[in-house]
Structure to design on (416 residues):
């Protein structure tokens, strides 16, 4: 029951109307607490940026970027590997027909990612209400990570299986 | 309290012309100062408390942007010592690593920042997915983000060839051979990328121009749109329910 109508000095209540408000019964979301981005967010961003720069500087002091012999079209290394973010694709090519692994799957993946917000019309952002979307996405992401790790570390000469702690063929 | 030196500088005629809003005491002044600052105009004035905390984004967007900044700085340094030709490229890198002050270090920074940026951008995308942050009204910003991810891949890929060593040459040979599987126009795509039938001096020049001019320009343009849309949507209530 709503509060009793307030009697304000100089005014009088003409009547009380029972029933629902004319705008409907939709729940108005509780107003989220807003804070100034300066300095609350800018400070956090500055700390994140400094941490990243520190990480890059330390890695760069410890590890040198690789440089092999000069390019020689006559000498093909074995295995031939694409850069690490494409070895997942290369691994798929070794397993499946090139038409499927090289064209259909990557095309569907990129296309699917592009139109994802227009397929997934579920308005909820709570993870317990988006089980299908989360499972599907995790499945693809997981498969891609596994394919990348296998292609990067577990493949040797002639794309044969190797154990990375015995033979190392990953290059960054 | 006695005003600090900075406060007194801001009160001068020159100071006022630069900062425009000298004091930042009341909420109104804070908002005004925010709008009159070029760097802060990338940020909305206010955001929900929940969305600025570490666990909400892991700051992966700003981490990607920082790595891109690191790549621009180190990349410009490298450009001073590099000529994109098979006869010079490899020697330039050797010279850079042994003779140029901070040459090896700058090359390391560029290489590791590039790998980290690919990782960070992918992680950013996954985090946005799991938070459901691509939903209304941010659908199109997700699409812009996917384009930025592809540009990041392509930037990294074109840069990979430039040292002109065995690693670069054969990784690009394998990578571009994937393009040949595209139906109907596969050969044309691969010809367009390579400037011939195999990785050659034409490929090196093409990849160089893409890497230092075309792709960074497009990427910056895309980032600007991405951030602008992010700011516009940041204070809006999406209307959807959020995870606690």
């Amino acid at each position: 029951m709503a509060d009793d109508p307030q009697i304000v000095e100089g005014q009088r209540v003409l009547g009380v109307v029972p029933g629902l408000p004319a705008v409907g019964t939709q729940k108005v979301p509780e107003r989220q607490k807003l804070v100034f981005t300066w300095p609350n967010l800018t400070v956090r961003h500055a700390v994140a940026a400094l941490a990243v720069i520190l990480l890059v500087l330390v890695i760069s002091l410890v590890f040198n970027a690789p440089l092999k012999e000069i390019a020689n079209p006559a000498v093909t290394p074995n295995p031939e590997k694409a850069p690490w973010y494409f070895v997942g694709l290369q691994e798929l090519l070794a397993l499946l027909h090139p038409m499927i692994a090289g064209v259909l799957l990557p095309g569907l993946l990129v296309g699917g990612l592009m139109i994802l917000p227009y397929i997934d019309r579920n308005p909820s952002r709570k993870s317990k209400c988006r089980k299908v979307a989360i499972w599907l996405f995790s499945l693809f992401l997981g498969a891609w990570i596994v394919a990348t790790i296998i292609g990067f570390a577990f493949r040797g000469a002639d794309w044969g299986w190797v154990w990375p702690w015995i033979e190392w063929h990953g290059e960054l | 309290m006695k005003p600090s030196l900075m406060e007194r500088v801001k009160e001068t005629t020159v100071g006022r012309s630069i900062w425009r809003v000298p004091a930042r005491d009341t909420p109104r002044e804070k908002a005004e100062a925010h709008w009159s600052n070029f760097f802060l105009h990338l940020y909305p004035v206010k955001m929900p408390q929940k969305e600025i905390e570490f666990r909400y984004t892991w700051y992966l967007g700003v981490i990607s942007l920082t790595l891109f900044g690191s790549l621009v700085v180190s990349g410009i340094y490298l450009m001073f010592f590099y000529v994109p030709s098979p006869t010079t490229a490899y020697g330039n890198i050797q010279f850079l690593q042994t003779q140029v002050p901070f040459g090896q270090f700058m090359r390391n920074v560029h290489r590791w920042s590039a790998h980290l940026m690919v990782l960070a951008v992918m992680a950013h995308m996954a985090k946005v997915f799991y938070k459901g942050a691509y939903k209304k009204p941010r659908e199109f910003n997700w699409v812009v983000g996917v384009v930025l991810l592809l540009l990041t891949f392509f930037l990294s890929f074109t840069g990979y060839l430039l040292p002109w060593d065995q690693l670069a040459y054969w990784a690009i040979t394998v990578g571009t051979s994937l393009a040949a599987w595209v139906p109907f126009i596969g050969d044309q795509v691969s010809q367009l990328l390579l400037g011939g039938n195999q990785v050659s001096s034409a490929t090196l020049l093409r990849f160089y121009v893409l890497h230092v001019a075309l792709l960074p320009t497009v990427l910056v343009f895309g980032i600007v749109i991405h951030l602008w849309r992010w700011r516009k949507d940041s204070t809006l209530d999406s209307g959807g329910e959020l995870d606690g």
Observations:
- Chain B touches chain A through 85 residues (CB under 8 Å).
- Chain B has one domain: 49-234.
- The longest strand of chain B covers residues 46-48.
- The two ends of chain B are 43 Å apart (CA to CA).
